[in-house]
Amino acid sequence: MEFLFQILIILLSARLLSEISERVGMPGILGEILAGILLGITVLENTDTISSVAQLGVIFLLFIAGYKEVHIEDLKASSKKAIIATFFQILIAFIAGFGLGYFFGLGNLESLVLAVAFSPTSIGVTVKTLLDMNYLSSKPGSMMLSSAIFDDIISIFLVSIVSTMAQYNSILSPMQFLTMIGKLIVFVGVMYLLSRYVLSRLFGHVRKMHARESIFATVILVALFSAYFAEVMGLHAVIGAFVGGVMLSNIPVAKIEDVQSKVSGLAYGMLTPVFFVHIGMSVDPKSLGAAGIFTVLIVVFGLLGKLVGGFAGAKTVGFNFYESLIFGAGVMPRAEVTLVTISIGREMGIIGEEIFSAVVLLAAVSIFVAPILLKFAIQKDKENKNSASG
């Protein structure tokens, strides 16, 4: 009974505050995190049961990222410019995070978790703003979409490094690093072979089955299997979920629109809201105040690392000042993978409440600030081009 009440309150609060957030022009994830913070300081405590449901949420969050957002054909078509720009924005954000941790005397492992948390981008926030301003097909907009694919893949790779280091509780030695790379290659290779020679045929047979929702159920089973198989291989479950999603993205039967809609409904309607509420419930408001200037600097360095990195990457590939500013602002938002990273770090005892809460604050601020700066940069770019053509 208590579990049902907790889930009821979590989902109800998440839906209400997510809707309010969307209505005022902010992403729903902000409302879900806020719901968690409010529930955590009032009526609910984080329990092992909530944590287990949240774990399912993060698995399906990363599975959906691979299943719906990453396409191998798009990777082949992506330009070298997008690769270069992605490299710059991730590298500079990574350096900003590690440097900040090192300056404040954090251990190498803590600093690395902070650096990895600084590195990902949440492109969904940016795409909405670009669509609203009819700028998605512009040079910066097109490159952001290509960059987002590489960003997801690189960020997931960095998360795999963090989860492996957490197992050893230290920076990886060359042999440990090579072992992790070997496991990752074997895992991806096996998943690719399964996708090409087993899953594609399996879905062909499943499509002929009379049982209702057979394709949907099989997609869910693949998500859970890939997460479990990754753990068997000594990798984190989220890595497996992401790779499993990417492999299914190339099987047409598994990508039928109706099935995609149902998978998204399960993930975004129930499981991932529990994860984001769980994140909010884990935030300790007192620790934010106790950390003081460190909290402020995490937010400032986190924002500037992506802004400067994106700007530098875009300038390197030949964009003008305002186009580069658009790209830099567009890659500022942090959300899903950043929150997954710090959840892993906290769960495995690498980072404490202060860093965890500060990075959640960074994600919230970045989601709020990025669209404002992006709109300003787009407006300036339009004015600049109009004056040049006039």
From TrEMBL:
It is a multi-pass membrane protein. One of its GO terms (molecular function) is antiporter activity. It is found in: Membrane. Signal peptide: none annotated. One of its GO terms (cellular component) is membrane. It comes from Methanohalophilus euhalobius. It comes from the Archaea. Coiled coil: none annotated. InterPro entries: Cation/H_exchanger_TM, Na+/solute_symporter_sf. Residues 11-378 form the Cation/H+ exchanger transmembrane domain. GO terms for biological process: proton transmembrane transport; sodium ion transport. The chain crosses the membrane at residues 52-70, 82-105, 111-131, 143-165, 177-199, 211-229, 265-281, 287-305, 317-335, 355-378. Its main location: membrane. This is Cation:proton antiporter. Pfam families: Na_H_Exchanger. Keywords: Antiport, Ion transport, Membrane, Sodium, Sodium transport, Transmembrane, Transmembrane helix, Transport.
